[in-house]
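Ticket #4471: complex job returned nothing on first submit. Input attached below:
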Amino acid sequence: MKELFEMLKEDRMLIKIIRFFYENPTCIDTIDNIADWIEEEKEPIEKGLDFLVEHKIMNKDSTYAAAGYSFTQDKDQILKIADFLEELGNA
Amino acid sequence: MVTNMDKISLEKKVVETIDKGGDLERLKFHLDRISDSNSVLILFSRPEAKYPIESLLLKIKKIVKECGIKTKVEKISVERIKNKMGRSSKSGYFEEVRCKFARSAWIFPLMHGGLTYGYLCIIIEKGTFSKEMLDFIDDYLSISLEKALKELELIKVHGTLRPRAIALSSVHTVHRLISSTLNMDELLPRLARLCTQVTRSKMCTIYIRNKNYLKPQAVVSFNSNRNPAKIPIFNSRIGKTLEKGNIILNRNVLWVPLIEEDIIGAICLRGKQNGKAFDSNDREILSVLAEQAVVAIKNAQLYEMQSKILLESLKSLSKALDVKSPKTYTHPRSFVDLVLSIADEYGVSAEEREHIKYATLLLDTGKLAVSETILKKADLLTEEEYSSIKEHPLKSAEIIKSIKTLKPVVPIILHHHERFDGKGYPRGLKGAKIPLGARILAVADTFEAMICHRPYKKSVNFKTAVAEIEKYSGEQFDPVVVDAFRRAVKKGKMQKIYYCMRAEIKKIK
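Support reply: We reran it on our side without changes. The output follows.
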């Protein structure tokens, strides 16, 4: 996890996504809408989200009709993310 | 209910907004020009009026110094200013202050809707304010105050609008995710997971009605090993309440019934992850999700029923083929298990699995059009007879394609005699161009043909049949499918099916 956060520090897009979901933990939404919420382009967001799903920071539910992304519900994971965001805020 | 703290906070915000808005700078500019003097504008929010004189003294001294006015600010003058603040707030009017350090000073209360948000103290070094000037300043400050209040209102609305928009969008996404699933085994766990996500609950259980009970069908739980029990609908308080369509909202539990004329199930949430109580907002969201869930569940149940009817019809059709050509080119019942074992090892989707199952039952439908003499022939077939046999996939597809719901099954049936190297029939498709289901059936069909007796050849043993499949991997068969077959053999699945098949064939004989 530590290495992951070190990697994330360099990626403005991923930080934006994580911050949005940390502030809105009940959100489940599609790539298009997430792009609207954080005011970024769709394609890099899709890559970012899939990366975060791979590293279990995000969850993905998909059917033929839609794919919905949501924040992890793992308590320990959330605490680490909170510390990470706080560290970024203080930097 | 607005508390005193809320009021103080609002007053401070209003004063800050006026301060940052630039209106005071503009006012000072005009006053200096008109009075040909240096004016000092000091903005106070109401609680500051309760501060000790000393802190007010320091503030006024600092500001006077910053404005370059060389004068002594005395305590008595500051006391007068403070008294005037109190008076103006009672009277609602501006109050004149006579100070030793200023020729003319006025206190203007910032009032709107009967509330005092703060005070503006205007001090000019020389000259005095005319009545018209005072009226102008009073109007200017009213407009400035109104502007600040509107700005704060907008910020507040925006602050609540965005979270609501995000919540609405989440509900819409959940609706799409659950409406597009027709498989109950997939739908209910997904629904449970989404309900916990949207409400940030520790646990969600989806109950489905089974006669007079609500039985837990899907449970998603974080940090809990609870196993929910079934609920009697008519013999329990919870059951009776839900049956009437009522929601149960407690601190740590939220029950919402799934109603479609009668109760068909229920959603139960237990505990919020942040430890807070469930509230009306959670109830509202879960009610909306429950309404969507009812439609999704009914659709899935109907689809299940329809699939069952279709499957029974296909089995009847398959039996008809059996009657037509018993003990010949027909597959034993366990052939379906053989095919699905390979498909499961491969990891096909649930939908694809259904298609493969139907294709397996209807594989040789086309043989109804083939002469029985050819089907039962023990010797080698002539070229003409072999061509007739080779047409059976086409004939099977022809028969099946008229049934709309079986449309995805047609390519599997049509191409189950293709070879991976492109040397098969009827179209000579190669590699991945052959539908996956057909590639799986090719392996199963050949394996079964080897281990079962045919009119024209004897059967081989299990080991030999497995070796033959592996031998032709990459040529006749897709190597990935052969790998799946190999894994099924390793797990002992194929052996079981082999013995079942042999037993079935013995019975037929």
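Helices of chain A lie at 2-8, 12-23, 31-38, 42-54, 75-90. Closing as resolved unless it happens again.
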